């Protein structure tokens, strides 16, 4: 079974509800929307990501013969229902915010319009895909904001929560503005630039540290970045200077050195001095080791002469905020608006659009959420991306990356600086409030 497209990668209640819809003939058009209810502490904005993987799933998802046989063997479902699933296809419409769009609570990032059995069954996987990449892109964007112009590389695959998480984290981080990733498959599949240096084990495997440096330089003459903190960092920096002059005669330049432990700011200053005094002014310093946007901000505020950063565990797990308070909820069925009224989890009914306004400096000034036919001032953010179960376009990741950079450049100043401040204004339009009241009055 292909877990990326298997319709069994879902919650059991999706299938039990689906049998209920099947038996009642409930096949009218349903409208579901994916949105975030509220931001977690420490977050001022989100960045939409994962739409492309969501569309891939919708186009490809099918029940295989093996899966249908397994469903039949569970004795939970009728033979007629399982036979009906053999022809299941997603044939609906999807509207979404383009990947890289900055977004906020109560704003639909994605809307699905399809017959109820189709729109319902895809709920779990859509949340799974959109929640994760939006979470990671939002985290990565914060490092992009605090370290403009720096080389930022995703280093988190080995600590990610599974293979798909590591792969998609690399994509989401690159979308948000990272320079690339150490994850090779992300380069092969998505075109994310691949970056890599060497491990401490490579140094330890050689009888001397300088021999390990020399060996690596000859193996990778166009990408000589040497890890220098296996033993004594400053002593290793002096060895790099010695080797640098030796290699220059062979036409090989030492591109950079990497620090992975200790007081990175102080070590960077000492190493920079050694390299400069030894004539290796062009050799860069790259740092890694338990980094995130807060550590980057601290290091750069202290003037640490670090040219780039490898950010791993804290990025790929979004360690400080490991999930989004997100949902995929029914907003309309059989042409009637629907509304959930649960305490703390109430929804706004109907098909919605988000309009964004900007101030005189071109920065985001506020959003309005209303019914899609209640046009407001500003730029509409949701656009059609799928019709009849087939995507309308397939934007390149580079295009989403440009959109992300453009969005980050338009953030209100306090959000761009990751400072505490007023929440970004998101207005629920009167027409939407009135519809919610009318729906409530019918119950």
From TrEMBL:
Q: What is the lineage of its organism?
A: Bacteria, Pseudomonadati, Pseudomonadota, Betaproteobacteria, Nitrosomonadales
Please indicate which superkingdom the organism of origin belongs to: Bacteria
The species this protein belongs to is Ferrigenium kumadai
In the UniProt record, which is one GO cellular component term? Answer: cytosol
Domain Nicotinate/nicotinamide phosphoribosyltransferase: start-end pairs:
152-332
- Cite the annotated pathway: Cofactor biosynthesis; NAD(+) biosynthesis; nicotinate D-ribonucleotide from nicotinate: step 1/1
PTM description: Transiently phosphorylated on a His residue during the reaction cycle. Phosphorylation strongly increases the affinity for substrates and increases the rate of nicotinate D-ribonucleotide production. Dephosphorylation regenerates the low-affinity form of the enzyme, leading to product release.
What is the enzyme's class at the highest EC level? ligase
What name goes with this protein?
Nicotinate phosphoribosyltransferase
The entry's function note states: Catalyzes the first step in the biosynthesis of NAD from nicotinic acid, the ATP-dependent synthesis of beta-nicotinate D-ribonucleotide from nicotinate and 5-phospho-D-ribose 1-phosphate.
Catalyses: 5-phospho-alpha-D-ribose 1-diphosphate + nicotinate + ATP + H2O = nicotinate beta-D-ribonucleotide + ADP + phosphate + diphosphate
């Amino acid at each position: 079974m292909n877990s990326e497209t298997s319709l069994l990668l879902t919650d059991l209640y999706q299938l039990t509800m689906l049998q209920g819809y099947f038996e009642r003939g409930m096949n009218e058009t349903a409208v579901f929307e994916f949105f975030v209810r509220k931001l977690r502490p420490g977050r001022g904005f989100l960045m939409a990501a994962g739409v492309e993987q969501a569309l891939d799933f919708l186009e490809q998802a099918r029940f295989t013969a093996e899966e249908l046989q397994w469903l039949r063997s569970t004795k939970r479902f009728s033979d007629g229902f399982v036979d009906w699933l053999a022809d299941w296809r997603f044939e609906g419409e999807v509207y979404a915010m383009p990947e890289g769009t900055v977004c906020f609570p109560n704003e639909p990032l994605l809307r699905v319009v399809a017959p109820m059995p189709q729109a319902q069954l895809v709920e779990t996987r859509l949340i799974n895909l959109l929640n994760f990449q939006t979470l990671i892109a939002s985290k990565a964007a914060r490092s992009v904001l605090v370290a403009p112009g720096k080389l930022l590389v995703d280093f988190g695959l080995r600590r990610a929560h599974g293979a798909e998480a590591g792969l998609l984290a690399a994509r989401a981080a690159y979308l948000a503005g990272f320079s690339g990733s150490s994850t090779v498959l992300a380069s092969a599949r998505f075109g994310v630039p691949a970056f890599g240096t060497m491990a401490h084990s490579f140094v330890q495997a050689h009888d001397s540290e300088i021999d390990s440096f020399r060996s690596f330089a000859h193996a990778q003459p166009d990408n000589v970045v040497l890890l220098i903190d296996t033993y004594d960092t400053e002593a290793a920096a002096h060895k790099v200077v010695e080797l640098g002059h030796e290699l220059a005669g062979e036409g090989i330049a030492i591109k950079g050195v990497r620090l992975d432990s200790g007081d990175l700011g102080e070590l960077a200053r000492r190493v920079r001095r050694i390299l400069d005094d030894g004539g290796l002014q062009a050799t860069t310093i790259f740092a890694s080791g338990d980094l995130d946007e807060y550590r980057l901000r601290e290091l750069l505020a202290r003037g640490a002469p670090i040219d780039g950063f490898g950010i791993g565990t804290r990025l790929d797990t979004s360690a400080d905020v490991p999930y989004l308070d997100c949902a995929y909820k029914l907003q309309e069925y059989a042409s009637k608006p629907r509304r959930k009224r649960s305490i703390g989890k109430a929804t706004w009914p109907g098909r919605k659009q988000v309009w964004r306004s900007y101030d005189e400096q071109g920065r985001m000034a506020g959003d309005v959420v209303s019914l899609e036919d209640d046009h407001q001032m500003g730029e509409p953010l949701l656009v059609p991306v799928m019709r009849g179960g087939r995507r309308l376009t397939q934007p390149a990741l580079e295009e989403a990356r440009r959109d992300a950079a453009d969005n980050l450049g338009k953030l209100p100043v306090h959000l761009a600086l990751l400072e505490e401040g007023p929440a970004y204004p998101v207005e629920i339009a009167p027409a939407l409030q009135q519809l919610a009241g009318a729906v409530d009055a019918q119950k």
